[in-house]
Records
---
Amino acid sequence: MAELMDIIASFLASSLRQAAPLSLAALGVAYAEKAGILNIGEEGIMLSGAFFGFIAAYFSGSLFVGIISGALGGILISMIHAFMCIKVKANQTIVGLALNFFTLGLTSFLFLLVFGQNTKLPSVASLNPITLPVLSKIPVLGPVFFSQNILIYILYLAIIVFFVVFYKTEWGVRLTAVGENPRAADSAGLGVNATRYVSCIINGVFGGLGGAYITLAQLGYFQEDIVSGKGYIALVVVILGRHNPVFILLSAMLIGFAESLQFSLQTMGIPLPSQAFSMLPYLIAVIVLLLSAGKSSSPAFLGIPYERDKR
Amino acid sequence: MQKVILEMNHIDKSFFGKKANDDVYLRVMEGEIHALLGENGAGKTTLMNILYGLYQADSGEIIWKGEPLAIKSPKDAIDRKIGMVHQHFTLVNKLSASENITLGLKTKGYPFTDRASLDSKISEISTRYGLPVDPGKRILEMSVGEQQRVEIMKLLYRDVDLLILDEPTAVLTPSETDDFFAVLERLREDGKAIIIITHRIPEVMRIANEVTVLRDGKVVCSKSIGDLDEEKLSQYMIGRDLSTLKREERTGGNVLLNIDGVSLEEKGKKVLDNLCIKINEGEILGIAGVDGNGQKQLAEVILGIRKLGGGSIYLDGNRIDQLSIEERKNMGIGYISDDRHRDGLVMDMNLEENMLLRSERSGFLHHGFIDKSALKSATEHAISEFSIKTHSSGIPVRLLSGGNQQKLIIAREIHDSVRLVIAFQPTRGLDIGASEFVRSLLLSERDKGCAVLLISADLEEIFSISDEVAVIHSGRIMGIVRNNSDVDMTRIGLMMAGKEVM
Amino acid sequence: MKRKEASLAASLIVLFLTILLSLVFIGVAGDSLSSSISGFFKGAFGSAYSISEVFVKAIPLTLCGLSVAAGFYSGFTNIGAEGQFYMGAVAATVLGMYCPFLPGFLLIILGIVLSFLFGGIWAAIPGVLKAKFGISEVINTLMFNYIATGIVGILLQTVLKAPDAYFPVSSYMPEGMWLFKIIPGTRLHAGLILAVLSAIFMYVFVWRTWAGFKIRAVGSNRRAASCAGINVSLSLVLSSLLSGGFAGLAGFSEIAGLQHRLLEGMSPGYGYLAIVASLLGGNNPFGIILASIIIAVIQVGSQGMQRSSGVPTAISNIILGLVVLLILLRPVLVKALSKGDNNG
């Protein structure tokens, strides 16, 4: 019995660790989507966060500086995205894809420029777990949830803050108005584009943190295309979590669970191709999209630029 | 003595060289309901959009509470306590009534809104004026009438002194209209000024103190309601007695279109209610009625864009209501939509490609390949026959004027093998010359033995070419009259207002 | 400025900015700007072999670019060409491995048909989901890429794995299925002919046939198309099928023309680059050929640049991302340049 509990606890813990970068990124995406900004470029935002987070931590020797730089790296890309979507009113899907290309090139370009071609990857010590007093003593769940690194605590805090902002404040109401009916929001005197720019900054911060999580908390090193599709999965997590911060964490954990299952089966030497599990999250995503047909939680004006003088 | 609250003088506004407002004036007192009366396109809404800051006037002045006023945006207007409810509501569906009403306001405790106290203030206003609104209910769960009350509450919550209401009764049932007028009276007693944009004369007589009539962008009359009657107002609004085009009285042939007890529900509301009409070959049936009473749904169920809720439709004795749009069009239905940009044309395609969007296209296709030269010559033929003004048949139709776009649609939809033409607001947005052209074309189709269903909010148009006129209200046909010299227009008007006068 | 002039000027500005920004990156990274640039051109045009390498890359890019465009015409945003490519490659591999007894010409013809169908159906699933349930194809086609690469991985470790191989690769295709080399001694194969024929087919289909016309009408104005009696769902699904089909052909062409067996990571992101190709080529089949060649030049050239002066090949992704962003910026430039002259 105790053994089973241990297995469950270790699965939960590893699911949470896999889920953390997805959840961080997805929170930002949810915020931007609520305001009507569709961000296929999340992959690029995360990659930029992963890169700048790593490089700053490497040269400063401070993981704190790394985390801040990760967030800034995310903002860098999300602001280009915001400008292209809001000001230029370009097709948001294509802007996002182009930014993913750009960031993919830029990060590995800069990485090679800084470190050159080395056989040994430069690395940093990854974030240490911080054990919270009292809370970590809760049986089973305590060590799982309250003996984690700082980014996971930031995630908890963010979930609470986002929840309150979305559902308990006037900001959430305004955000909904901007995404659902920008014309109504405009005629009520709300700045539609300003709201959207702010949402993009928030998207950048959390996408950047999600990326930094990968390099600073999970791996301790950077290499080309290290985000490898997590940005796209974050978009799915948002749909699966119906833009609700709590559900987003749960959805991300579901996908994290599939990933950790894959690792443990591999280490156990079960002769199943690893791809059978690595494609699970994507299969789940497609099934979720199918099941949510017709009852999407996406705002009515998602991905559509606002033009005041156009009916 | 009441005080003048608003004056608008010498307002001019042109769109693409066409004058929408020409030296217009308007004077509104405190505690007055002022009707702005006119036909579609007379310039009423343009004038009010100028007042509300959505458009800027080319010239003219606005004096508000004795001071000249420059309004750049709706926000300025609201700040000066001028509010407007548009025909198309600006409400956020997923939010509650209360959240919509206070949207954009920084209330006490912002951003942690004290929703309960806002709700109680809303309830207080709503009881004061008899406007029942459930603050917690979401807009998407509301009927149109409720939504309109939320829109008005938005203005009252901001304590506006002038309410502009654009065709407010267009979406209301008769009993909702009664309640709504009671609210307006209470607002008037409270000293608010109200401008109500409308083209319904009986409503003006019933609720307004003053009326300003616009015709073709000019003010033709501005008087107290006591000095007027319905007949005079009608003359001012239309400008002349309803004229008729030369139309030979004739009896049609066999029944071609038979709509038998058709019903349709949308969002839990009956939009077509056991509707029955018949059209004979060689006849034009006009459907008269206020916009939004089921006309669009009627046109679209015949073509097949919407599926029926009940009843059946026969074309020449064959049941068609289960057929696809393509099959119906192949049976000889031509369709002229009221929204040519959305329904009629592919704006980015050229004239030739738009001509190809027809049911009668066998001459242009060989084994699935498009015969470009045949298509080009047919398009050029249509261009000259209908005198469509264009540089070539190869330019995108978005570069054509509205009238020329409409002519292209008509050239496409009315071809030799057409037997039924559905003409839905066929002259909307066209100038007089183009309108006359379209009407005479419909008449000539009728003379060739076609059946024509003419749906229009323009009574003059209906009575100028129809053989029979049916009046629609709330998805029901209120009555059908033969269009001859002794049509009782009062009766038509009453039917349009939903009164049973059989 | 007149609108036409403004439009031309804007294009020139986009081109100029792309080159300028690229040079900045190259200048930062390379030993010297001149050796980098000469390395670039030598890499892309220096020899018959390097030129042939450009075309070797342009073949799958063109086919995938046609794929993206075929979807675009009906408003089907296909980000899934990568996955459709792999499904086409799987179809060709299965055929080659299980029917090696068939004569070569039959293998090629069947391979073309099956790859087209496999790729097409892989895209038509999101197409049906969009047409029937209104589910956005953007995320779906993307997810289908990952699922497709997962399927390839599973197959290569199980049924398609070459018996003697240590790595997850398939056996070689029977030689009868190999496409001939256009220039002996290089890798340039007859897939080029397939790509050009596909572009011609696509041009004729989309611009000259009723079915293609319907697809364009649906993409431009779904509602008007439906009022005109066009079956919108059918056109959408047909367009997605066609779209996936071209990407599937790219998979066939890589198997039969270049690799001769199925490998993991066979495509260095052709399906994604294709979106750039289609945008750059203005969704015109022949424009896409040209755009694919340009992209291939950038990629092959940047390899030369890395050899000559150590500029990381990642530069090509930077340039492509920049090109797309600047192209998207173009309308704003045109508007700004033609200000004060609104007669256009």
Note: Chain B has a mean pLDDT of 87.
---
Amino acid sequence: MPEKPDGGAGKTQGGMAGFGNALKLSSEFIAGIGVGVGLGWFIDRMAGTSPWGLIIFLLLGFGAGVLNVLRSVGQVAEFGAKTPKDGKGSEKK
Amino acid sequence: MANDPIHQFQISKWIPIEIGGLDFSFTNSSAFMVATVAAAGAFLFLTTSSRGLVPGRLQSISEMAYEFIASMLRDAAGSQGMRFFPFVFSLFMFVLVANLLGLFPYFFTVTSHIIVTFALALLVIGTVIVYGFWKHGLGFLKLFVPEGVPVVLMPLVILIEIVSFLSRPISLSVRLFANMLAGHITLKVFAGFVTSLSALGAVGVAGAVLPLIMTVAITGLEFLVAFLQAYVFAVLTCMYLNDALHPSH
């Protein structure tokens, strides 16, 4: 299992780790939404389906952002990992 | 303006070059990229050129950097991942040396521009995609299909996984860029307080001690951030390469 980014050096630093975590998690979340909006806008632009692509991909991007955040704090299994039937990856906590 | 905290990030053309209407000018950013590569290369070359069996102080720094990245890559991606060692090591050294060079007063911080970090992140994700498809063919797409998901939800989950995958280079680049940008602006703002307070006379000079202490403390912190961000960049690169090597573990 790959170790979590920031796992060792950041944890012991108190306020600094909080700041680092805030930047890390917010960048994960914003990146998900940003990519969703970008894809939706691009699809609308290409297929002329405005505004449906943007609406649908904004929601998908929101989902992906939440998934990114949960994944980076280790609450959800990594990409392609085998998950148990309940789909929660609870053995990893 | 001496007190403008954004001024330090301005690009200035040193040698204007224009080819076919495109701007290829040699800027201060390019100059510091060259300096970064030269400094990292010269350091590694000179410190290891003596090839001492018992390493000296500087030689052991180089060896520690090597061991550090090698064990990180081996942990994350297995021994197969070692074929990417030159790639990951170069990335780590480039980001680390660029961050550290940026800490010198009046130096330009290459990694505080999102286009630079985004290009690095695209390089990583491009390597993952090209190598993944070359090695596994369409089996690489299994990366987007988690097991144990009901068939009804499958299209939704796959779409979300794809968006999540595409957001990786964005979050990778935004994190490095935001950390460097925020750190340097904070440093500049606190240092600016010192000069503007001490212009107020004796009381101001006494009051300026506080932001001065803060500036010293933040400088120390910035050294930590410079190292930590290079480390995070390298760790995430290793994890993404692991996906390319083993799409379904």
Note: The mean pLDDT of chain A is 73.
---
Amino acid sequence: MTTSTLPPPSPADAPPDRPPQRLKSGGSVVRKVSLRNLAAHKVRLALTVLSVVLGTAFIAGSFVFTDTLSHTFKGLLSDVGQGVDVQVTGQEDDSSGVPLADVDRIKTIDGVRAVQPVMSGQIVLIAADGKPTQSGGAPTEGLSYSPPAEQLGQPYEFTEGSPPTASGQIALNQGAMKLAKLQVGDHTKVLAPSTGTVDVTITGVYKTKTDTGGYIGALFAADQARSLFTDGKHIGTVYVAAQPGVSQDQLRARVAQQLPDMKVITGKQLQADTEKDINTALSFINYFLLAFGAIALLVGTFIIYNTFSMLVAQRLRELALLRAIGASRRQISRSVLLEAMLVGLTGSIIGIAAGVGLAYGLRSLLNSFNVGLPSGALQLTPRTIIVALLVGVLVTMFSAYTPARRAARTPPVAAMREEFASTGTSLRRRTAAAVGFGLLGAIALAFGGLAPSGGGAASLVGLGALAMIIAVLLGAPALSRPIVGAVGAVVARPFGAVGRLARTNAVRNPRRTAATAFALTLGLMLVTTIAVFGASAKHSINALVDNNVRADYVLTGPDAIGVPVQAGAVAEKVPGVASSLALSPLDVRINGKSSGGTAVDGPLAQLLPYKLISGRGELSGHNIMVSQTWAKDHKVGPGSSIAMVSSDKRSVTATVSGVYENNELLGPWLGSGDFGREVTPPQFEQNFVVLIKAQPGTNLATLRTNLENATDPFLVVKVQTAEEFKGSQADQINGLLGVLYGLLALAIVIAILGIINTLALSVVERRREIGMLRAVGIMRGQLRRTIYLESLLIAVFGAIVGVAMGLVFGPLFVHTLRDQGLGEISVPWGQAVLLLVLSAVVGVLAALWPAARAARTRPLEAIADL
Amino acid sequence: MNSIASTATGQNATPSASTSGHGVAARAVNVSKIYGAGDTQVSALDHVSVDFARAEFTAIMGPSGSGKSTLMHCLAGLDTVTEGSILIGDTDLTGLSDKKMTQLRRDRIGFVFQAFNLVPTLTALENITLPMDIAGHKVDEEWVRSVVTTLGLNDRLTHRPSELSGGQQQRVACARALASRPEIVFGDEPTGNLDSRSSSEVLNILRNSVTHLGQTVVIVTHDPRAASYADRVIFLADGQIVDELRAPTADSVLDRMKHLEEI
């Protein structure tokens, strides 16, 4: 290395007949050293670039993923309002829709070119194997088919067969055909919530942009769609097209004038509304990914920073030599920065590519959980590239600059002396700041915990959590000594001297230890918080079922349609059934606002015992019962009259008979089954769930078989005991947790790579010391064990802090949502311990390669300057 | 070949046979060490044979590149020989596995290096008992205490290396080398980084361990004053033993060195 820094021969020495050699400036020599230095240490270079790749891949991946999602959805949206100039629907929350007479009236309005009634509703499609088709999170709907002449916007494009023309015929989108494994000409069944099963023949297959991620759209002939999805008097949505020369706004005004009771919006507004809806629906995943990106950025920055501080420390002597031969501080800084820029650039470019791969993997992962994400082309926007490049290069240069400045400030002689100990500056200021943030966080957490349940409290806890994370970020170096010491005292003790070496190594550089462990801390904090959520949700449901449900069997159906009404009726008549209780939704308007109650059809007290606070438990006629909270909010009590408007606009006056203690299963208010049927159009009738109680002495197994046989024609009804019901609810929660854990696994992988990186570099850094240890007799195995233990201690340190934070945040978040069905806090202690054990394993795995490298160190390296 | 050394210099000393009757602690037999291959091949040791008697203090001297460090590394089991054999006591190091070699260094040899002797994260006492701790051997506390006391380290035991002066660090290294009562202590320029007062302290420690405890000590040095503490000085040049001196003084060593350079 040093030879390359020798100045070229001075011109005076050159033979006179040759032109004098051009002297290269000192700067370019320093730069040359910089570049050669990069090439000379391949492993070191690879690790450094890797750290940048990790950081930027995470960022780019997050962006690519969200961009792809929103791009695909925007693509779908461009179709939504196409050809539609005005949309007419019932007023908000009014499910009945546009009266048929009004539809005819629209046709007569001046400026209307065409009118397309849209009738749609949720259905279940039975697949070729006789089971309901699983669409994951994507919608499954039935739609009325309009011939091209009546279809506003893009007409359906059929790839096979023909459109449905009569009742009993449907056409499916390509994705649905594949999902259900059906062919044109096949006979199958479709379930609609109110009408039960409908036999259908598949007449054709059409193409749609929506055709991704599990969407099922069954096209019905208009007549059948009307009977399935409307009450025969209303149409849900009506699309209107304007004649040439009539603007959307003009037409909207005319229609609105004619139909003052209807909600009339322009096609543009429709597009905007739909976009807003979808953005709202996507906001969870967007926030999650943004949070993820922020974590990625933080973790990436840490890894890069760590790597560069170590690199420059290792190169102190080399830099000192350059200083000694006359390079200025600025030249040194510039050379290090140039190096950092190259590394940052290379790493970022690879990182962007890796990010695209990451996004692809993420989507595949999510879709393997049936989340139903569309599978359009991955979107790599210029913004993604610019942000990733900027972050990668700037963070790398910043990370390199601080240690480089320190290096440049080190007197050359001090740096060239053999034992140049890296000076550990005081942690006092950093720790003081950590305590400050910790106090702020604790106050916010406490207020959040004490605040009434709801979004405000959750935000307070969120703020507190953020302050705590910053506190931990700042305070981790100070925390590392006691925690690693304590863990080491337990874990490393059996390893004797090796254990002691590992323990002291792990806290040798508290900043580095903390930075290395931080990725794991963040990841496990999230995992633990989510685990507490999951456990609490499961526990809450279990408690709810255990405390309230007195049924022998629970009948359930798919979320979209529930238990078909007829299935409930059939089940009630099965021999051996003493009583059955069907719960169904009640939608009315009270004081102009929509209000959702529960209709209970059956002996409520027997199957779902509730606690009456005041009044009578009577639900006959127009009597309703209300929950404590609802009574308080609406200032009503036994005897109060409540004016309601049904969804088909009939006024009903209900009388409060009693007030019951809040009950998640019952909801805010109850009406009788008859009341429910009175205010709900038949096509919207559905049961959430039907509870069955057996006659005393009935063989439960026989009853189950009979129930299953009786409900079999409805295909989608599941017969479960209360225990099984709890289990299936838990499965749903586990599925959701699985998705989140899958995402967090990425963070853990990054954390592991970060640990590997730091360890590998610190092994290089400690080469001489390791050589000395080998000389005085440490075995290769012992040396490896030392590194394993050191890594284990760092990982467990990170895990303990992360899990501890999760155990604080998780219960607090659950507590703030105690009124949203998360009444019970459950802490998954077993899982928390498992996480700590796993992190120990992860620590050892991360150390495998660095330890192998360390074990190859020859004893002579301690003495000889190799 | 070993006779070349004495004949070449014409001195009356006989290098390879000069044991003082207590037996041999370490022995190099016809040792060659060749680095590299082909054009870049360098012969660091050229058929060297030498014995190191028990309870004797030997200094190995020679100009840079003479092979003195290589000889010590080979003797101490830190490096392997290309040809010939090394014996520590009766154990032939040739062909020993890494494990056996490490064990031998740990249990039978003590080291004092020029620098990087100590583990920075361990206290002085922990550094002193490190080889025994690694081996899982019981530490002879009485002995360690007496070594520590002799070396004047009693009030420094809980300090970390960074809290010790260079001389104190080297004394801790000496204490470590002596604490496990090895068969032989090797020093690689043990005073190379020290001022003259600290040098004297370290050399006196080594000298006394030979005189009073019967310890065998071999050091490599380029400092005639350091060599004068030894019972015997061996001179190397170009990979061969070229001279030997008994009961050296700083002046006599310097004389020989000058003489060597003139050859």
Note: Residues 267-314 of chain A form the longest helix (48 residues).
---
Amino acid sequence: MSSWKMTGALVGALALSFAGWTLAQAEPKGAPASAVTQEQLNAAAKDENNFLHTNGNYDQTRYFPGKQINTSNVGKLHPAWIFQTEVKESMETTPIVVNGVMYVTTSFDHVYALNAKTGEEYWHYKHAMGPVTTYCCGPNNRGVAVYDDKVYLATLDAKLVALDAKTGSVVWQTEIADPTLGYSETMAPTAVDGKILIGTNGGEYGIRGFVKAYDAKTGKLVWTFDTSPENSVGVWATTDATGKDLHRDIAAEKAQLTKTGDPYKTVGGGVWQNPSIDLATKRIYFVVGNPSPDLDGSVRPGDNLYTESLVSVDLDTGKYVCHFQYIPHDLWDLDDTSPTVLVNAKDKDGNVVPAVIHGGKTGHVYVNSRKDCSLIRFSEPMVSQEGMYTLPTAEGARMLPGANGGVEWSPMAVNPELGLTYAVNLHQPMTYQVQSSPYPGGKLWLGGAFKVIATEASFGNVTAVDYNTGKIKWQVKTPLPMMGGPLTTAGGLMFTGEGDGWFRAYDAATGKVLWSFFAGAGVNAPPASYAIDGKQYIVVGAGGNTQIDFKRGNNIIAFTTD
Amino acid sequence: MEGPVLFYNGTEFEAMFHLPDPTSTKRAVLLVALLLMSGSAFAADPIEEKAKICTACHGETGVPQLKTTPVIWGQNEGYLFLQLRDLQSGARKNELMSPIAATLAKEDLLPLAGYFSKLKWPNLQQPEAPKDVAAKAQSAAASVGCPGCHLHHFQGDGSTARLAGQQREYLQKTMVDFRNRTRGNNPGMSDLMNATSSDDLTALAEYLAGLQIDQYLGSEHR
């Protein structure tokens, strides 16, 4: 008799002994989850039934190939069902849909498996959170990864958890990093080639950032890429990627370097979002966030590599391939948090080449070569850059963009038929105030404060950029700063939500609003799409946002046309 | 005093678990199983014993003796743990707490934090702030992003302190201590308090003290 059978027999005997004493225990409702193959994940970009990756596919285009819902019938879109989670708090999840089963997450790391056709709950997992959670911007979670028979979640207490897709029970769990040192997780993992890839938060806490790969079956660490190399000094660049002067005092920095050495162990460099996977070259591409402390450069001399950079590493080994830094030695938290997207774009000579793009907090869309990470072009600014790179002062210096961007963590979407990328932006004037303090051992380490100027107007916009030219194709102003992100579809549509509760469909080519729905709470999560029994759905979370304090809710809303 | 019930007499035990017929062998099996499951149920909880020293200042019912002493009943576990750790290491200095923290065993810090976090936050009957004060406080909080960590209802989470319903005088003193870096174990908080005017700090203390919230409004995630 095997050990598990013995255990089962013992449990049965005890249960018999306890007859007459009833323990209330809910009957678990299993999900009819089917195993997800690597071939399915590879082909996600052409899958009209499922939404298998947080950003749609390995290129991260957030382009859904189904076109049953399109510009001619989107006006008839209406709720098919609404699921209310137990957690009424900031919602940034992208629903993942696999053969009729939907997985959504909430703040504080709950996971639900739902019937994607009806909204009925199959199972609900609540992460047993450790006592120490260190996060700057809300208890968010952006979703799960799916692979084989498991669902993967990364948590606020810096754990990576594998759940049984059918039952929601824990298969394995491992600690990614020590949360008392400022590490936490809000991003969705990425599943590829038997590995689970994960970055980290913590750029506000003096971490040393990383991307790690774990064995999907066992949870064993496969490789780690540290986002700050032991020589993080770089080339003492005095301008940003667009040629703007950063006003660095290189002599003072060099003197500090002599005095205190390379700051790579505490220089930050979180990776907030999923990498893009180039299946042909087996390279991954991601952007690295801000240096620590955010506003005080005096304690971190040098360019602070690879903060605020595009980085590519080998998928199998985690070895460095190339990088490109956008803002060396940043002092404004104008970092890169929106995920990268792989496209084929025209280079400077007009040749179409493999490219990687992302939206920055600066308000530019950057287009880089996948071959060597070099910059091909940057877009017109999507937001005001009034006084950009004004040095922070003790009293506070005003400038735009504010520290939330531009483009914050919100992913972009790409419509390859139109050659457009869609980005949502914030216009939030702030003052930047610098103060100096030593590394605080995992506590908040801003090096000052960025302060929203309450007397000035804040607003947002939705912008379509031609990534082959860098020109803005269309732009729609929104009443509130934008956070959440878009989805675009083969039906000629682009969907995105707003902090006041409106969820809208735009004509992807022109920016004309074709449909709107009021969700009652901030729609600050990226939408997804899928189809069941030949019927296409659009789904989005409406739970508001902690970071910019939009009205909270707890709704997952699926829409369809009948 | 609320908290875990540690001792049961036989009648209470039977009433709780509806024990079968006294002559039944199942009864004996069940009693043994329950005793095993209850672990140290018949011995005093050592952490509760160790926590008794705290009542001298923090109160027997969770209401502190002095206005400048914080409420710790119902405070977040991770926050309490890190404060004890920092008081012990010297990163945070307090003439009353530092010597007490020095006597604590390292392995007791997290259990102590867990013990107090599970007690019910007391209602100090502090008045709700007038609307103009609340508006000023909310604007100040939004400006430097307080809800990003302390959350929508200022109940904090994990390593971040609950502020809602905390003692007004303690809140005021703490914000000023952060401001002048007398409290040195969170320089990020010091930076944010330095970016906030004295008037705004006073409004924040009044507003936060008047937020009496009995349960977490967003979820039952704990």
Note: The interface with chain A takes residues 17-18, 20, 26, 29-30, 33, 77-78, 81-82, 91, 110, 113-114, 139, 142-145, 147-149, 151-152, 157-160, 185-192, 194-195, 217-222 of chain B (CB under 8 Å).
